Structure prediction request, 494 residues.
Amino acid sequence: MINPAVALPALLSQPLKMLIDGKWLASQNGACMDVINPSNGQVLVQESLGGAYEVDLAVQAARRAFEFGPWSRMRPSERSRMLLKLADELEQNGDELALLETLNTGKPLKLARAFDIGMAAECLRYNAGWATKLNGETRNVSLPGDWHAYTLREPVGVVGLIVPWNVPLAMAVSKIAPALAAGCTVVLKPAELTPLTALRLGELIQACGLPPGVVNIVTGLGHEAGQAIVDHPGVDKISFTGSTLVGKLILGSAAGNLKRVALELGGKSPVFIFADADLDRAIDAAARGIFGNTGQVCAAGSRLFVHRTVADRVIDGIVQRARQLRVAPGLSPDSEIGPVISARQRERVMGYINSGRAEGAEVAAGGQVVEGEGFFVQPTVLVNTHPRMKVVREEIFGPVLSTQLFDGDSLEELATRGNATDYGLSASIWTRDLRLAHQLVRRLRAGNVRVNAAMALDFAMPFGGYKQSGWGRENGREGVEAYTELKSVAIDLN
Prediction:
């Protein structure tokens, strides 16, 4: 366990700079902003605000590294070894990275150390294996004569990676790792609220010996640095994780050079608990699914559908869990749920809770801010909700659960209720009747469905959503191949 009394990481000792072509640079115009600790509202450090100028430098560096540098021509086994080495570096520096993540996001330190760092290292190791396994195949064609026909998988080129603030390190690594495994070069923009672990990752990337320009990190505002990455004609692909609204804007901007686009966007995920479920496990999973990471998870189970015969037990169990959770700064040893990321996000979450009250929902637990320093919101359970309420229809991105009952609903009716959202990212089902579970799985319009499982995130399994939850998939073979182009070759042997 990390000792919170240790000295602050060296990264915080001076204003943060950007990694461009192997050099650490401040913004050309000197623009900067404060990085805030959401647990107490205090300034941690200042970061440089890059814009079009810095993005252009980074894209040029990435282009040189791709076209003329060693990376895309490096043997796959060498790229694999470098990713494995980076995974080792993450683990060896795990305490420092977890401390930075907790200071920057407010999440409990033990969670950051066990989950965020562990997942990032595992992601690198999984994708390192793919570096040596990307290949085309020979094809039997029906052309007249004698032909040798085959396909090649080639890296797409320079990729712009734009990541959110809720899981900063793990999200940055989840995009960098497959891109590098495929042979691409990278311009990464972390969220302006949470740049710390991305920049420390940049230092570790340098320590591992990755050539200059292979990974560039530009900090800045979304509408400036992020927009410049999306607009840049030298970027071949954008991979973005964030809000559906911004995802739609990116689509319009990417039309300039028809760059490839992958989008992992919002969610309003249903959780179905049937009368025959293992209720103790289901209650625990439902509570963790909405209160974990303070509800700031795209796949959070924010809509609970529970059978009327067990509704009292299930909802009471989740309410008790909400009341018992220790809401505290991430560095507090007994912290179980930290703050939301900012004062603005706290206002947003409270706005939804208040709209729920105004529309007739009853607050069974929570529903208030936590007074004092930081941006804390009580874990909240709303009952007597209906599908027309904003809290049921829209993504809140906070620790707020809406509950609805079912009884005589058919599978089609249940699926219709679960699918009654613009999103289609995730869903979970709790029942001992696997026949019923399989039937409901097939009717749900969601990219990821869990049955009798609290979490089933594995890097071998593709992750992504239907409808307005995004385009494309991350993880698995599909996640790496998304950073490649497929070339067909036909040779006339006559």
